[in-house]
Amino acid sequence: MLKTIAVILLFVLGITFIFQNQEVFIHEFFLNYDMKIFSFENKNISNGLLMIYSFLLGVLISLILIAFNLISKNREVNRLKKKIIESETKIVSKEEK
Question: Which pTM was predicted?
């Protein structure tokens, strides 16, 4: 219940902030980007769209880093499982002797 109230409160505060500061979100910029394989000049882009692109880029980078972390942890778990199996087989073989 408390979590739901907190989410609703954050949502209302966010909407209030957006409506009170609309000028920030509709301000437009001219962007220039020039590389050998891709370029554009004087492209008109709104600040809101620029913020959305930045957010999505941050999400993508975060997901990539999380994926690498999960892969490395999975490899470590598999390595430790193999080590446990080897240790168990050594113990069993010593007990049989």
Answer: 0.59
